[in-house]
Specification:
A hairpin with a 2-residue loop joins strand 30 and strand 31. This protein has a domain of 212 residues: 3-Layer(aba) Sandwich (Dimethylsulfoxide Reductase, domain 2), CATH 3.40.228. By secondary structure, it is of the alpha/beta class. It binds iron/sulfur cluster.
């Protein structure tokens, strides 16, 4: 698949890499996990650099893992407070491989676009600022000063500040994100799409409407003492592996784990704790007590069925729901009970595809136990009805009174390490009147009062020519977004695109007329300012703010930190004609933190309190304070069942990550827990669906989605028979993101529907 400007390929050359299939693994982590972690580290960084970095990752005085946002516990077990995925992320960013001016002189952007995403990522770290000038196909070096001037000139030349878009990935620090968000506002726009728009925006919306805060309420220690933990649409074995240690503790304390997922993910089957020698020698801890293999996007039916059965039991003895909690803190109880009567239990059961005896087991557990935690991830946030789905699960917690007390609550598990912090410090496309007031008071300027573009809105604005400058603070925007071809065309409409990045990815090749590639620090690298090593801060999934201080020698003397790049861009743009001292802030992170403390509610004495294991931001749910909601009470919601309207030959496809992958970054070609080796172009299918269509194992298929009479095709995938519900299918992203139409997103949150794409299969003659 090739694009129009500069003849850029959106997929790289499509070729199979040598699929080897094995049985899915039964035990996660263990010795093999440790071996893989070390193998990646030593291969990319060498022994000395690997050991130095691994010993500092997630430690009190060290740096935060650049991968997911799972919190470090209050009393960590000592060294090795990281997982295989974290070690891979570290190896990936701290690699000794580099690419500079010589490399870009040799390879044009066209040539590079023929590489796969995996191959692009393997090229190494960016070492100096580069520019792709209009009409050219090779990046060439540019000085930092010229780069700042070029950006400032393009921004100054816009007809309106809303023609600029400032995208943020979850890799940034609080300091960089704050500065970036304030620069966008100082310029006059709220066009701040972020990666949240593509993943957990549905959680934010669902929780804000029902509980008054768009974040989870659970601390990692709460998991240890929970009676029941529901893990919904989440694969912690691959995506948040240290969560398994917390679940293991929960099991040891007598807790029960229920996995709700169309796939039986290995991490939830059995786990060998790599931090314990004894555990690695044993057969592993079984994690999930019950697996509900729900069909894709039938969680609302499942949650309603559980609620109906719990309500029936409560009607008998009045002991299932927490009536005191409901009386004092919850609105909508009678209406919800009445609404549940409209649904037929047998129909709900059939929709879920789950055997009735398993539902009964779960109901018995939920009915008997008060301390319940519900964890979830992208498996339920990326559907048309994602907000409703999450709210249906919140209904269970509200009726059980499982909020605002130890060992209970909401746990949306965030994917990227500081995605939550970015939002907390002001990366948002909507307007917060409270934040605007504080900005005017503390920073001395009036921020814009019109909402800006979210991710879908930004893509459409670029596509329609309403935005001309697109700046990305990290990420791989084109590949992460939906409708790859549309998104690529949108980005290519820009006059200037800017990528502040550590490594090359496809979004650096799909550019505007002029493109800048600005290399920045990885988390593990030592950031020296005024002769001292600086620290930055991040917020974990549980809302805790901690320091991160790198220690490795930076990959090049020509790279700059994110705060410095943003501060200097703002300084060049304003030339002193602005109340904020951008040039000073560029190199004084302490000064940035002081501004965060005064400007963002909840942050206080951050420099001091972020020491050690950090401090928690305020969370009203933990306090059982729902005063910010209408009537001052948490809200039960009535949610409709989704209609999938599948045609006879259509399947519902969910995009998934492989085990060698973090978001759009591809570390390797294996997905060893699922038994898939050396290949990413695969589609997981139910055997009955294969038989019905006469599809053989490893047959080559094209995947086709057709929305509003527009066909989108992902070409050449190998069919794999797999334990997945009939009518459902799974394949890796970002390869399949091109099947998701730009206009298909979740109601209210506008998160793309990447977990329920209607597709048909087309056999390819070989
Ligand atoms: S669980 Fe997440 S944050 Fe922790 S080490 Fe693993 S990838 Fe990093």
């Amino acid at each position: 698949m090739s694009d129009f400007k500069r003849n850029i390929s959106l997929t790289g050359d499509i070729r199979f890499t040598g699929l080897q299939l094995k049985d899915p693994m039964e035990v996660s982590a263990g010795m093999l996990g440790v071996k893989e972690a070390l193998r990646h580290g030593v291969k990319e960084m060498g022994i000395v650099r690997s050991m130095k970095a691994l010993l500092a990752m997630n430690q009190e005085e060290g740096f935060r893992c650049p991968s997911c946002a799972w919190p470090v516990p209050e009393n960590p077990s000592g060294i090795g407070e990281y997982c295989e995925n974290g070690a891979k992320a570290l190896a990936d960013e701290a690699t000794l491989d580099k690419i500079g001016a010589d490399f870009f002189q040799k390879y044009s952007v066209e040539q590079l676009s023929r590489y796969s995403d995996y191959e692009l990522n393997k090229l190494g770290r960016l070492t100096e600022p580069m520019v792709l000038r209009p009409g050219k196909v090779h990046y060439e070096p540019i000085s930092w000063e010229e780069a700042y001037n070029l950006m400032a000139a393009e921004l100054q030349g816009l007809d309106h500040p809303d023609e600029a878009i400032f995208y943020t990935s979850g890799r940034s620090s609080n300091e960089a994100a704050f500065l970036y968000g304030m620069f966008a506002r100082a310029l006059g726009t709220n066009n701040m799409p972020d990666c949240s728009n593509m993943c957990h925006e549905s959680s934010g919306v669902a929780l804000s409407q029902t509980l008054g805060i768009g974040k989870g309420s659970v601390k990692v220690e709460d998991l240890y003492g929970a009676d029941v933990v529901l893990i919904v649409g989440q694969n912690p074995g691959t995506n948040h592996p240290r969560m398994l240690s917390a679940l293991e503790k929960c099991k040891k304390n007598g807790g029960k784990i229920i996995s709700i997922n169309p796939l039986a993910e290995t991490g939830l089957v059995k786990f060998k704790n790599p931090q314990k020698v004894g555990a690695m020698l044993g057969s592993g801890t079984a994690i999930a007590d019950i697996h509900l293999q729900v069909k894709i996007n039938e969680d609302i039916a499942l949650a309603k069925l559980l609620l109906k059965k719990l309500a029936a039991l409560d009607a008998q003895n009045g002991e299932v729901f927490d009536h005191d909690f409901i009386e004092n803190y919850v609105q909508g109880y009678d209406t919800l009970l009445k609404d549940l009567d409209r649904f037929d239990a047998a129909e709900l059961l059939e929709r879920t595809g789950v055997p009735e005896e398993k539902i009964t087991q779960v109901v018995e557990l939920l009915a008997a136990k008060p301390n319940i935690i519900i964890c979830w991830a992208m498996g339920i946030t990326q559907h048309k009805n994602a907000v409703a789905t999450i709210q249906e699960y919140v209904n269970i917690l509200l009726l059980k009174g499982a909020l605002g007390k130890p060992f209970a609550g909401t746990c949306p598990v965030r994917g990227h390490s500081n995605v939550q912090g970015d939002r907390s410090v002001g990366i948002m496309h909507y307007v917060s009147r409270e934040l605007n007031r504080r900005i005017a008071e503390n920073l001395g300027f009036e921020p814009p009062t019109q909402a800006g573009y979210d991710t879908v809105g930004a893509i459409k604005a670029m596509y329609e020519g309403n935005a001309k400058v697109f700046i990305c603070l990290g990420g791989n925007f084109v590949m992460a977004a939906s409708d790859t071809a549309y998104t690529a065309r949108a980005v290519q409409n820009c006059k200037l695109t800017v990528q502040i990045s550590t490594k090359l990815n496809r979004s650096h090749l799909i550019t505007g007329e002029t493109a800048l590639l600005l290399p920045t620090f990885g988390r593990s690298e030592k950031d020296m300012k005024q002769g001292e090593t600086q620290f930055l801060t991040m917020e974990s999934s549980s809302g805790k703010v901690r320091r991160s201080k790198g220690l490795l020698k930076p990959v090049s003397e020509h790279i700059k930190s994110e705060p410095e790049i943003i501060g200097m861009l703002a300084h060049t743009y304003f030339q002193g004609a602005h109340p904020m001292s951008w040039k000073t802030l560029a190199c004084d992170y302490e000064a940035i933190r002081q501004l965060i403390d005064t400007t963002v509610k909840g942050f206080e004495k951050t420099s001091e309190r972020s020491k050690g294991f950090g401090y928690y931001l305020p969370n009203n749910v933990r306090e059982r304070d729902f005063s910010r909601l209408p009537n001052g009470k948490a809200k039960l919601t009535l949610n409709a069942l989704p209609g999938h309207d599948l045609k006879e030959d259509e399947l519902l496809l969910m995009t998934i990550r492989s085990h060698d992958q973090f978001n759009t970054t591809i570390y390797g070609l294996h997905d060893r827990y699922r038994g898939v080796h050396n290949e990413r172009r695969v589609i997981f299918l139910n055997t009955r669906d294969m038989e019905k269509r006469g599809i053989q194992k490893e047959q080559v298929l094209n995947l086709i989605s057709n929305y509003n009479d527009k066909e989108r095709r992902a070409e050449r995938f190998l069919a794999i028979p797999y334990n997945i519900p009939e009518g459902n299918a799974a394949a890796y992203f970002p390869e399949t993101n091109l099947l998701v139409p730009i206009d298909e997103f979740a109601d209210k949150s506008r998160t793309p529907i990447s977990k329920s794409i209607k597709i048909t299969l087309e056999k390819v003659d070989e």
